[in-house]
Amino acid sequence: MMTPVPRTARHRADPGTAVPPCVDCIADSAGGLTFDVAETGEPGAALLVLRRREGHEEVSLPLTPAGDGRLRAALPSGVALPEGRWDAYAQVAGGEPRRLAPGANDLRSLVARVPSGSLGHVAVRIPYATRHGNLSVRSWLRAPHAEAVELYRGERGLGVRGRVYGIPLAPDAHAEVCHRDAAGPLIRAEVAVEQAEFGFTVAYGALRPGVWDLWLRPAGEGGPRVRIARLLDDIADKRPFLIHPRVPVKTLYGPVEAGPYYTRDNDLSVTVTAAD
Predict the structure, then answer these.
(1) What is the Cα–Cα distance from 106 to 23, expressed in whole angstroms?
(2) What is the spatial distance between Cα 130 and Cα 128, in angstroms, rounded to a whole number?
(3) Residue 64: helix, strand or coil by DSSP?
(4) Residue 128 host element (H or E)
(5) Cα 197 to chain center, whole Å?
(6) What's the sign of the alpha-carbon dihedral 152, 175, 179, 275?
(7) Dist. CA 57–CA 268, nearest whole Å
(8) For the whole model, what pTM was predicted?
(9) Whether residue 144 has a cis bond before it, omega within 30° of 0
């Protein structure tokens, strides 16, 4: 938890109001976030509090006057934010934290972001509105990371082109296609390697019905097993936006419909369903 800096902030809104304060967010290309909140008139030190939904961890950021009746909190890229969903609150003078609402987000720097990977990991933070209209931040911390850059839909399979961060690609790097319920053997796919970029094809004909998760072994057999995902953009949940059509395929298990999709965590998977 970051050490809060004592400041006096005045908020103009009625603290008893049911309308939560709105927060504008700006992302930088290094993975940091800046939060701007309108002052509301309450005296005392003001904090922006991020609470991890899954593990109940907490990060407190001082809200300091930024002019024009605004308070500002910064979450630098160097501050660790473990992977998960973080709900945003405002807390004044040690009082009860109040949920915050999303305002305007400037996430242009996240589009087509290409991190250096020199630290051995990739950190991604994307602010988003929850289904209840509150502000949360989705954080990823992958070490190493395999980014899905492009998908190619074929009649008999899926082509994947990607880039690895935090680990060099070995000549014997390969992909693994694993059934979600772990039943049966995994399917290995050969990988074409060009510096930090990789490419491979998932042949649908060998897949039985179910969900198959895509992994990369960048260092070959015995090295780390890295989940392939698409994280380096401004979309916190890709499921409603990046929809890929399924194709009919004849397989060893009969006719199926198969196609890629992104999970709730933006990991890349393939779904296979028996055709009617």
Answers:
(1) 11
(2) 6
(3) strand
(4) strand 122-129
(5) 20
(6) positive
(7) 27
(8) 0.87
(9) yes
